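Internal QA ticket QA-208
Title: Verify multi-chain structure generation after dependency bump
Assignee: T.L.

Test input:
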Amino acid sequence: MTETAARPNRFAAALKEALMAALLAFVLASFMLGVRTVDAPGGLSYHYRPGLLAAAVAFVFFGRLFLRLVWWKDERSTPKLYSTLTEGMAKFTSGWGRFLAPAVIIGAFVLPFVASRYVLDTSILILTYILLGWGLNVVVGLAGLLDLGYVAFYAVGAYAYALLSTHFGLSFWAVLPLAGLMAATWGMILGFPVLRLRGDYLAIVTLAFGEIIRVVLLNWYTVTKGPDGISGIPRPTFFGLQFKRFGEHTFHQFFGIEYSSMHRIIFLYMIILLLALLTSYVTNRLRRLPVGRAWEALREDEIACRALGINTTNTKLTAFAIGAFFGGLGGSFFATRQGFISPESFTFIESAIILAIVVLGGMGSQIGVAIAAIVMIGGFEVFREAAQYRMLIFGLLMVIIMVWKPRGLVSGRMPTIFLGSERKQVSGDLVKEGEG
Amino acid sequence: MEYFLQQLINGLTLGSIYGLIAIGYTMVYGIIGMINFAHGDIFMVGAFISLIVFLILMSIGVTFIPLALLIVLVVAMVVTSAYGWTVERLAYRPLRSSFRLAPLITAIGMSIFLENYVQIAQGARVKPLQPVITGGYTIMQGNGFTVQLSNIQIIIMVLTVALMAVFSWIIARTPLGRAQRACEQDRLMAGLLGVNVDRTISLTFVIGAALAAVAGLMFLLYYGVIDFYIGFVAGIKAFTAAVLGGIGSLPGAMLGGLIIGLIETFWSAYFTIEYKDVAAFSMLAIVLIFLPSGLLGKPEVEKV
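Actual output:
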């Protein structure tokens, strides 16, 4: 078939396809977008929205036509721009990558002294999610266990700090490791019976566990105050110095400087930055230990692991417990930052966001997780006005990125062990994962 | 005794609804081995479309209830099937050869998308519907307590049994059912033998979505109030039902649905209503730990 003969044919085919897509869109949107139910005296009423329906159908029609004729021109090959971009990235990271991480970390330490309050608040939020993402990364990215109830450990950590500090007056620094340990214990309690399950069953049981924790928090009124939540959670102190305008042992009095509400924010920022770096450091060290290698081996092939004599239950349990530990740290920090917690903060959607950060960033890649957290949480903040639409877009992005790049944005990874001195990155296509 | 009997009836009704949703999970899991996390939201979409179609019919003057319900049923099944088909086509088919967890993650994305889509399109407030089918029978009376079997409960149970019979027949006797069972056993081999695998999987999603639409309509008629969030919890419970009955088994899904419905109802009746979801979720964990292949399922053999 010659080029000239193929062209009109291709256009006709694309037109037909777009018409079919538009027809489908019409069926889908007919009642959902074309009709709007409204509250009226004596029951529900409704009105038609033909304009919206027509817009949706037209959007699908032209969108499909555009995709077919322009975007997928070369029969679904990757767009040229994208491949040059990734190649450039690969070159850059292999050459300058060594300096990248230290530069970013130094930048992160300098940031609070130059940034505005708003930027700093957002950064604290992003860092919290980076910490949680790195924690979940141990479970999902390294050990290959899909955990849909990670928020449960986050909740355990938050409530542990809130209850221990308000009832027993323990300080943040005393509770922080305790909260982590408590979350880790919960991880073990949950993990012990369920870790024999296959990947997707495990996912659903962890999801159910997350929901159970939330329902218990909601209904165990005598301890958790139910939906009212716990308020008046103490702020962290700097070696016993408080960040208050008045009172004794305050930070600004001790150092003899002018009081500023920014001090507390900067302090919080430093705490979460150090916690996140600790998570990253511990995880990187663990990866080089036998247990870390066992995690990654488990992710690649569980049956082979068993054949090689690795105790799969213990390996999974350690991954679960360590992931939960970091979740607990994050939870404690969340509680002390907010000063108020309620079960509303620990819904399934939080688990989904953290999981999306890990998966979309590239499972097992710490840089990828950090980038995904910055993009996603930063994006949430930027589109704060469009709050209604951001979860819609979030769900859609999860699907699109997954279909486009199933391995996540940073999919290649460094093997932890090398033959000789050659350090080569393994491309994402060569690794199999998630067969837990 | 009277109280117990009443709860039994209520539990069976609820269980029928769960069973119908569970069929969608079990068929999809059987054929492509993935948890269609968005299925609960397909059920929710079905309930909303039922509500909207019903409102339109009432206002244009179709007030003969049986006819109106029949039209609602057909339209809701068709439109919801289109949703099921589209979700499969957009989110699952491109990832069919990818690693196991990839489609589960797109399924979660789809679930979030559908929930927010309905919330934006129809508003976040709960949607009430005044009772459509009223009346019922008094079965037993004693100790100052009346056991009622309402007409809507009868309709739900009868319709569920009828649909179960029809779909069991489809799976067992028709070419489509044969193709489905072939794909379930070995997708590659079925493809080589001339089964259109993509089409079969699409049709499985369509059937599952159609049944979810029926469940959505029943839910709407039974409870008289829906919102965009009903799919999440109902979906997890229906999945529990599918697992409990043995995933991949059609009668198992129905049995599991009935058991979950009964557990939930009796738990609310005799213990605390706040913890009824905990009861259902704990059931899921217990079943998976002690009886991973379910009541009527075949034990899964892991091949290397």
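Spot checks passed. The beta strands of chain B are 127-128, 136-142, 145-150, 225-226.
Status: verified.
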